């Protein structure tokens, strides 16, 4: 087992010998944010459903973004509802290439849970490996976990602007949203001036498993990231940026998360870049 990822067979073996493993089902997607119906139809045995919108995100002003980080007290209350106790091993998964499971991983690691793993290959990988599902809800006995945030590096909106100008800030949304060709959700199209495009969906193989570390390292290096320099990541609302954060960690980088991401930036009236060039390349970008 790696210190971040877990294969389906490793999870099956772990749960067979360790009763302290807690499994969280974090199914969520933009077009279907409530994953509970699918969870009830079939989930990994013992898994507890986690609602990303209400339990893994806060709710604030538009300038905070669509999925701001939750208050630590609220996250702790939710984690106790999930049955988490201090010292537990926690495994998170979803049904979409770990894009939303990574958000749970980031929050729990940041809050001090020592052993949090992502099921590599997500639910599809579990089923493909021949492991069973169960139906219905799982309501565990309340846990007693104690959380305190602040262990993973973040970027404020001002720090993100500075890093885009002076270092490497990666926009991990689809390229058409980065270029400003389309923006289906947020109030303005484009990207943070100076940010570079590196779609996080390219960090996994067709089966939704993270690429090998050396391949991930090449991807990040191709976008200009250097292992000895800070690299920031952002997406639309901060959810899939956590996925890019994990990929960067696997590749040997020390990433920083801009949690508010584009949804926060585009609500502040700050300059917006369109096109595909770097900061200051007026032939490729127009600032407004």
UniProtKB/TrEMBL annotation:
<keyword id="KW-0677">Repeat</keyword>
<keyword id="KW-0808">Transferase</keyword>
<feature type="domain" description="Rhodanese">
    <location>
        <begin position="17"/>
        <end position="135"/>
    </location>
</feature>
<protein>
    <submittedName>
        <fullName>Sulfurtransferase</fullName>
    </submittedName>
</protein>
<dbReference type="InterPro" id="IPR045078">
    <property type="entry name" value="TST/MPST-like"/>
</dbReference>
<feature type="domain" description="Rhodanese">
    <location>
        <begin position="163"/>
        <end position="274"/>
    </location>
</feature>
<dbReference type="InterPro" id="IPR001307">
    <property type="entry name" value="Thiosulphate_STrfase_CS"/>
</dbReference>
<dbReference type="InterPro" id="IPR001763">
    <property type="entry name" value="Rhodanese-like_dom"/>
</dbReference>
<dbReference type="InterPro" id="IPR036873">
    <property type="entry name" value="Rhodanese-like_dom_sf"/>
</dbReference>
<dbReference type="Pfam" id="PF00581">
    <property type="entry name" value="Rhodanese"/>
</dbReference>
